[in-house]
Write a structure and sequence with these properties.
The protein has 202 residues and is of the alpha+beta class. 34% of the residues lie in helices and 15% in strands.
Length: 202
């Protein structure tokens, strides 16, 4: 899960606050700090206004922000992140604001003063109708259908070795297979699969 009703939870990948030496976490503290700062920069400070004691949130690494805004509303980067999520083992979940590539609700934040509300927009039926017509949302629906329907995802997962800036994620189930190739340097990704036709390259 990349985003939730509480925002973007990254504390689980950091060091254990009670024992940081023996439990340093997946990402070093300085890198995690830089990641959080990058989100604040990408949102022009909106996430900073919604995160921390000023917005009734004491969890430093619970970044209150939509995932779409955290990626600077960049459709390509957003879909790349979702593609990695859908190819990872487990059952992918998508929060409703993330499903619609929603933006920070600064009006609701100002009204409630609760940081988490920045990522809890109350959509009208008309807003939903407009959102689902956006190309980024249509592409996300396509990825979801692919993940849900392709038989390869009922098989075995592997990550073939690649160069530092690249990631390859693959699923095999008998003759059925699906593979995601990511180039982080260029921000591009490509999904290939069998026996169906190739999903459109992004």
């Amino acid at each position: 899960m990349l985003d939730t009703h509480d925002g973007i939870g990254v504390i689980d990948i950091g060091a254990d606050s009670t024992n940081p030496q023996s439990r340093p976490g997946i990402i070093p503290s300085e890198e995690l700090d830089a990641l959080v700062e990058k989100m604040h920069t990408n949102t022009n400070g909106q996430s900073r206004l919604a995160t921390g004691v000023a917005a009734s949130n004491l969890d430093l690494y619970q970044v209150n922000c939509t995932f779409y805004d955290a990626l600077q509303r960049n459709d390509r980067d957003y879909l790349l992140a979702r593609a990695i999520q859908f190819f990872a083992p487990g059952v992918p979940q998508v929060y409703y604001v993330g499903l619609l590539a929603g933006e920070n609700d600064m009006t609701l934040l100002a009204k409630s003063g609760i940081g988490r509300d920045i990522n809890r927009h109350y959509y009208t039926p008309e807003e939903i109708d407009r959102a689902i017509q956006r190309p980024v949302v249509q592409s996300l629906f396509e990825l979801i259908r692919f993940r849900n329907r392709h038989p390869a995802f009922n098989g075995a997962f592997s990550m073939p070795e690649t160069r530092d800036s690249q990631i390859t994620m693959r699923w095999d189930n008998g003759v059925d297979w699906a593979m995601l190739e990511v180039d982080l340097a260029s921000g591009s990704y490509f999904v290939s699969n069998s026996p169906f036709e190739l999903l459109e390259a992004k």
